[in-house]
Amino acid sequence: xxxxxxxxxxxxxxxxxxxxxxxxxxxxxxxxxxxxxxxxxxxxxxxxxxxxxxxxxxxxxxxxxxxxxxxxxxxxxxxxxxxxxxxxxxxxxxxxxxxxxxxxxxxxxxxxxxxxxxxxxxxxxxxxxxxxx
Length: 133
What we know:
Helix content is about 40%, strand content about 10%.
């Protein structure tokens, strides 16, 4: 474990290393990317994929790509059934062998969902409760 991590970051690292899903969020400059790099280092013997929501966000990590490219989703115009026909075998192998998928740059999405829906719940409680329309 890195000596440069604070207590919360160390806890998040330990959770991820031990197999738990983890949402890492915070304002810009709170070392989220640094923590992701530490997670990748700690799991260097596993197949870890680092993705981001945009190509620009992916540039800060070595070998990162967009989540859509990683998953072979192309431009999203295919139905689910057709997607499985057009996804390359290489992509299917990448998904089968991946042991940890990291998706960076979702903090702003989480913030917006929380602010619009329910500030007390992650992602504003998406899927956790019925929303009146």
